[in-house]
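seq as requested:
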Amino acid sequence: MKANPFLQKLGCDDDDRVVILHADDIGMCHAGLAAYEQIVEFGVVSSAAVMVPCPWFPATAVLYRTLQATHPNLDLGVHVTLTSEWEGYRWGPISTRDETSGLLDAEGYFPRQTAPVQAHGRAAAVLTEMEAQLQRALAAGIDVTHLDSHMGTVFHPSFMPLYIELAQKYRIPALAFRWQAEGLHDTTAVAFANWSQNLEASGFPLLDSIFMMPLDSHENRLEVARQWLTGLQPGLHYFLIHPAQDTPELRALAPDWRARVADYQLFINEAWRQAVAESGVRVIGWRDIREIMRSGD
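struct tokens:
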């Protein structure tokens, strides 16, 4: 695939490696919010996203406004949430209680998995819910830098165009990737790849790759992250973590709590700070991309 055209808008060369170091699931629980505050203060993370429908969203908004006093360029987006995956800790849509929306399971919460939402979610209801989450974040004083998707639920042919249109309406970037049609045979995949290429041609920023620190293991975190840096190719890339402090709350709700704690510990580790500094990558946040979009360049 040819060089990412957005690199030049960032003032980079085609062979530069540019990375967003991103923290997800902020506001899901107190343990994640406490970790977020610490990693912001440590200074390696460059972006994060909040789960607006979750119980700890109001506290996230308060913390955000507090941190802005010393971190005026704080980078926080909306982690569009259409699923509620845990067994004993749930949340649901903020825009509707209509069962025909396809956004509610039998218990009255978001479905636990992406498949039911993608199969039954009405496009109009999904768009309404996405915008309601974005507007609630803005109303709470969050200078939203971008949109992304919890569990990738919006990455579906029925929802993806609406997600991008919403981002364009508010003049913010949205997590999306570069696809190429060459070598694809499935009709839907080819159509989606062509749509992606047209979107990029219009000037919308797209990422070359995403790497998520695994949630099914927690060992050798620093080594896994270093290996990813070493093998990184030129382009615009996304490094994703789910940080949380080790608390009774986290252990009670999340079977993958060890991995989340390991992510938190990685991003307050001086060895990781040094590895990033010595790697030669350029670290940016979504705010950098948003300001270029809004400048009209």
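The chain has one domain: 6-295.
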